Amino acid sequence: MELLEEVVDLGLPSGTLWCKYNLGVDSNKLLTLKDWVGNYYSWGDPEPKIKLSNWDLYKWAPKGISHELSKYVTDEDFGYDDCGTWKVDNLTTIQPEDDAATQSIHIGSYNFHIPTKEQFEELIKYTTYIPIQNYKGISGICGGIFKSIINENEIFIPAGEYMGKNGINNRNLYNTIYLWSSTLNIQRNY
Q1: Residue 168 domain flag
Q2: Phi and psi of 70, rounded to 5°?
């Protein structure tokens, strides 16, 4: 697989290339919303999830408790290690071994990773956001097109679904897109 088949150059000043599809998407099968959404992941865990149930399956909450985390801890009230000691590691960006994109995509020497807060901010600054329903004429495929103001190339991000403790929940209403960055505690709503 060639790198240029999988990425879009939006002409961004940083040179960041954006993937055409979410992780787990089969570009030969794009008929339903699930096809466009791809895999589900917990933040900082490169393994796809079939089911999430609050904290009990989260890699960094080994006891299944939200306030006893073993990694990516910036508050001493939440850090916990196997010895029962409270700790803070002050990691605020997903490390490569915990990055789903880094661990899943291997094309040439390009270093794929979940976008950082700064990369999302650059995407927003240098693109026009176009909410869309029925993307490519397919009913129920809602989301947004980010069209470059530099070279007019574009990417589509599905409004899709998210997985919570009660299974898959629909987020198609109002074409709202919720995106994770690799930076801890960042949320953007569109």
Answers
A1: yes
A2: -105, -5
Residue 29 included in any domain: yes
SS3 assignment, position 3: helix
pTM over 0.90: no
57 in a structural domain? no
69 assigned to some structural domain: no
- Report how far residue 105's alpha carbon sits from residue 34's, in angstroms, rounded to the nearest whole number: 20
- CA-nearest of 186, 127, 178 to 157 is 178
Look at the alpha carbons of 127, 130, 135, 137 in this order and tell me if their dihedral is positive or negative: negative
74, β-bridge pairs: none
DSSP annotation string for 45-81:
--S-BS---TTTT-TT-TTS-TT-BSSS--STTTB--
| DSSP line for 72-128 | S--STTTB--TTS--------B--GGG-HHHHH---TT----PPPHHHHHHHHHTEE
> Closest Cα partner for 84 from 105, 64, 70?
70
First and final CA of the chain: distance in angstroms? 32
Number of domains in the chain: 1
Quote the domain boundaries for residue 140: 3-48+93-189
Task: Give pLDDT tens digits for 20-54.
Answer: 999 999 999 998 888 888 888 889 999 998 766 56
pLDDT tens column, 122-161? 999 999 999 988 899 988 888 899 999 999 999 999 886 6
Q: Are 10 and 128 in contact (CB under 8 A)?
A: no
